[in-house]
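sorry for the late reply, my laptop died twice this morning and i had to redo everyting from scratch. anyway the thing you sent over, i finally got around to it. pasting the sequence first so we're on the same page, its 295 residues, then the predicted structure underneath. double check i copied it right bc i was rushing
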Amino acid sequence: MGSIREVFKELMYKRSLFIGVLIFLGVLLVLAGSTVKANAQSSIIRRLSQQEIDQIGERIFENECALKEENLLTWNLGEDFMSLGIGHFIWYPAKGRKTFVGSFVKFLEYAKNSGEKIPRWLDKKPIPACPWSSRDSFLSAKSDSRLTELRGLLIKSKSLQAAFIIKRLEEALPLILKHVSEGSCEKITFQLDRLTSTFLGVFVLADYTNFKGLGITPSEYYRGKGWGLLQALEGMRDKNEAPDAVREFVRSANVVLKDRVKNSPPGRNEQKWLPGWQKRVNSYIKQEEKPCLQN
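ok and here's the structure:
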């Protein structure tokens, strides 16, 4: 009788061990699936050729600067910051009101780490704030040698700026997924996979993010509704209803931008900007499509 009990205990132990192994393997498979998805989106730049990176940069340069090198250095009326480069990266003066992410300093750090030589007055730790305190001081400094050096850096590093924009996109995608519910996460991931599988889709994601942000910070919301990349992705229909991912993104982005104008403070008169925003977004479907990227 005792031996039967021992055999029974051993069988139960082995059964428990077997179940534990199955659970462990199941967890590993789930984690592996998540890692594959994350890697698929975080390796965008490695799947692009240098020519494709440059083409994306050139299209963003056209959208932000109208392909004019004099527009690589600007300070728009009513803004508290300078805009630099093909992506109009933001650079705040020391006492500027920092509403948005100061992306120019991040670009300079990326450039240094990539081996690019930057002007000596910028090659410091930490990288200094914008030396011009306002738009008026910037406009009156046309003969300042620092502006000449900046312009030279931005002209020669367009390709590096394009790579930086794509790299920022890679780093941003996981942040978007952290700001959605578990149920929405699968949908957003699916739409990102659709778009990142083509050259045009990558350009659309990079340009819209550079243009209207991620949609995950309070400064990207009016009346509880955002207008960034997250909101455009959330508004996309599934593949059965809308098989063309880029066209569907454009449709959703137009809705999001109209909602932004509708919800904006009346004093800002954002309606005047909507036609330009829509023209930029609608241009995505006029771009020549290219084959799927190599995995």
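Strands lie at 73-74, 82-84, 89-91, 221-222, 225-226.
thats about all i looked at so far, will dig more tmrw
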